[in-house]
Every structure is written in structure tokens, then in C-alpha cells.
Amino acid sequence: MKTHAFFAVVALFWSLVSNTTMAKDSGGEVYAVVEIGASGVKGMVVQTLAENADPENPPVKMLKQYEPLDKNAFTAEAASRVGEAVAQMHKQMQDEFKVPVNHFYLVGSSGIPAEVKSAIAGKTFLEGATIEYIDAVKEATLVFRGIVPARRMSQVVLLDIGSGNSKGAYVEKTKPALTFTTYSIPWGTKTYAQEINKGRKDGSQFMVVADPLRKELILPAVQSAVRDFPGMQNLRRVYLAGGIPWAMATLLHPEEIGPDKKGRENSWVKLSVDDIAKFYNKATTDVASLLQPDLAGVSKENRQKAEEEVARVGKVFNHDQLTAGAQILKTFADEMHFDKKDALFFSRRALYAWPQGYILEKLSATHGKN
Q: Is pTM beyond 0.85 here?
């Protein structure tokens, strides 16, 4: 699968500035997006900067990123709770930034199961707001654009392990037009855990069902992707995104959470094949201890933030889901030959990467019509 990027959208990504306070007297317009994902509802508000405005490339400033609400969009029964979460976040955005009705977007991620989409389709979350769903191809390219620096675009393969599916992208060529190759498998952390639990009707242990099911479902899907898309193996840098890589980086490297001594927040966590092996071993044998990492290496200044982030992992994923996600990650690592890569990183920016891209693409299209 290949898609052509919009140059204006790519350029816009590099102009994003992390800022949580609204600029005074800037004259820009405010836009917001709320994402319904398999692991909850999150959102962001951005502002176009009136000064130096370019109709083809309106500069954008991040005003606020809203942390995911603890609402689960993974089951059809949760549709009403999803509606409550959307309404709550929309009210916060209105109270804080007075977002115009026609500047508000409600988007469903590619990982939401079909039965959940059907259940949500019958709900009116907000008057006049309709949900637009994006597919795995679009989501993968938006995440890639959002986290990969321009100088690295031809060197990186992205792997995004979500709750509903797993997908990724890499650049096939940069000229005459930037062209992406994307790949995906229909299994993510929560969809795979759910499938495993379906097979535990006799009360069998999770791993007793998971091991053969991994060989039946996950391994063939990943092997097929690697066979069809050689860049997955050949490119030398891997950037990880999604909930399970976030959980791994948080639980294995809590010392990387928070700003350094100079007050700089690091957007990247460098990982290794040994980290993946350690995460997999703990997640499949002693997941309870995995959720209780040693925080001795965390600075005093970052201790509370690290404790909160570690605790959040346990609120987002249960034991079964952590185990299932670790199996997916380990399978990709083995088949893509992470042991032969030059670098492996988790991007903290990835959580909001594709919603940012969605807004920017909407802005680009709107300004392009004027």
C-alpha cells in the first residue's frame, strides 16, 4: 500500500511548537480534535498564528494536549461512556479556548473494532458533530510525519502497536514526490488479548492459549508483512509508537521520565533488543512485578511524575493485555531483525502525532480553497 504525502502537511509538522498557554493578541484561529481510540478519548487544541501567515502553510502552535480519559472505547457496551468522555473533553475545550463549532473535529482511530463503530454510530455525542474514521494507512503516515525528523525520513521504519491494530510506514522515495509504503496487521494489544481470552473457556491459563495462538495469528501476519515490505527489515532505524512501546519505555526506564537538570524534556527513549527481551520475559511470567519497577534511578524532582506515569500504565492495560502486547512486540522484533538495526527509539510525541496531522491536513485543505 502506498500513499502520496501532501508537502504542505509535511512542512506544517516541523512548525509545531509545544506550548500549553494560549498566545495573547495573536489573532489566530483555534482548532480542536478529539480522538476516539481503542484505549480511550484524548484531544488537543491548536492555534493558527496570524502573523507571517502563509495560505499554503499556516503556522500552528500547540495550545494544549488533553491526557486520555480513562474510558474504554474497546467494547460496544462502552459506547455511552465514550459519549460522556467526548462531551466532557469538548466542554473543557470550550471553557478554556472557546473553540468554534466548525473548528471542532471528532475522529475515530483505525483500531476501533467494527462492532464498536456500529454501536457508536447510533449515538449523538455532540450536536452537529459527526465522527470521521481514518484507516490504518492514513494513521501510519500521519504518525510517521509527526515524529520522524526531516533529516531521517529515508532511514526510518515506524512501528505503531496500537490497542486495536498494529501498523507502520516508511518512505519509499523522496523524489519527485514523497511516497510512503505502509503495512498493517489486524491485531493490537487489546484485540489480541480479547481473542486469547475467547479460547480460555475451560479455565486454562492465559499463556497456555496465547503461545499457540501467537503462532497461528500473529506470526503469519507479521511474516507476510515483512515479506511484502522489505523496508521493514532493511531500514536501519526503528521508531516505536503506540501503547505497548510506551508501557515498556515507562516501566523499564522510569529514569527517562520528566525534564533533565537543564529543564529539557526528552521526546525520545533509546531502547535495545535486551529491553524487549526483558519486557517480554516479565510480561509473560511475572507481570505483577513488571508493574512495580525500581524507581531508585529517578531524580527527586521527577519522582512524582514518574510514579504517576507508572501508575497510569496499570490503568490503561490489564495483565492480559500487557502479556498480549509483549507477544506482538517480540514477534515484530524477531521478524524485523531488531538485533541488526543501528538504533531503536520510542517517541513520546507519538501519542498525539496523528491527531496533529489530522488537524494540519484539514487546515491545509481549508486554506488551499481560499
A: no
